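Office hours follow-up: a student asked to see two folded examples consecutively, so here they are.
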Amino acid sequence: MNVRYIYNAISGIKMKTVEFVEEQKPWSRKRQSIPPNKIMHLRVEYDEVQIRNLVKSCGGRWNKGKGYWELAYREVQILGLENRILND
């Protein structure tokens, strides 16, 4: 049971509400699914030659204007580079 108080400053009234739990069961948030062909933006440092070559070999493209690599999400997963995805 949850108790909550609601205050109305205009009318000067305080209300007490009660919420009962009828059922409780395990629940987990569904993962947001990303389409496999969605182009992701990756951070790869200049001196990380091996990673850069891997990205290139899987079809990655360098976006000169933005300064990041672009690669399909499916390839990012295969290469294990999810931790390099940039949040735009």
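And the second, which I mentioned at the end of office hours:
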Amino acid sequence: MRPLRLLPVLPLALAPLLACGGASRPANLGATCGQVQPCGGDLTGDWTIAASCQMGLHFAFSSCPNPTINPSGLATTGTFSFHPDLTYTVATTSAGSLEIDFPATCIASGTTCADLTPSVESALSTMLGPGLQSVTCSGTAACACTVYPTPSVTNGSGSYALAGTTITNMPADGSAPSTFDYCVVDKVLHLVTVDPNMIGPTGLPAIVYDVVAERP
């Protein structure tokens, strides 16, 4: 069996969360995920996550530089609050799975999908380390590998700072700050990660991670 080796690619944004006015609330907030550019707005209030989406994932292997990635099984759920005194609280969980599809042309002759599983798991662990829980590959000629990252639970508080359309969260426990772009439209908030090295379909920098939340 020819081993799969992970090549340098875009960072995988599986980190947990904490990680302008006027429009009516969309009926399906999930449909807006990844579609809203940073715009700023009033963050204060109690927010409940309604949807999340991960875009732009790219894994490259020595024998398969462009497998198909389906991240739709990944999700962030929970609640958080931004207070007028520039403090926040958060209780969220990031969990689920993603699928990596390897075409038959990437599979060495005589290699089954079960044979492929430890090789894929070893390659991904190079990038994800303890963030990888398990990998299972199945199929016949082509192989679909289901990848389960380790679920991540965040319960905490801290302070935050705003600069334009950017929010930086500084946890009270002294762990590393997290920075996101954001957009509040009426009672809907998008916390997004933008990759300036990728251009989206609108010609603007691509959004690679979006958490959509709503407040009462």
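Two things to take away from it. The two ends are 56 Å apart (CA to CA). Residues 1-26 have pLDDT under 50 and may be disordered.
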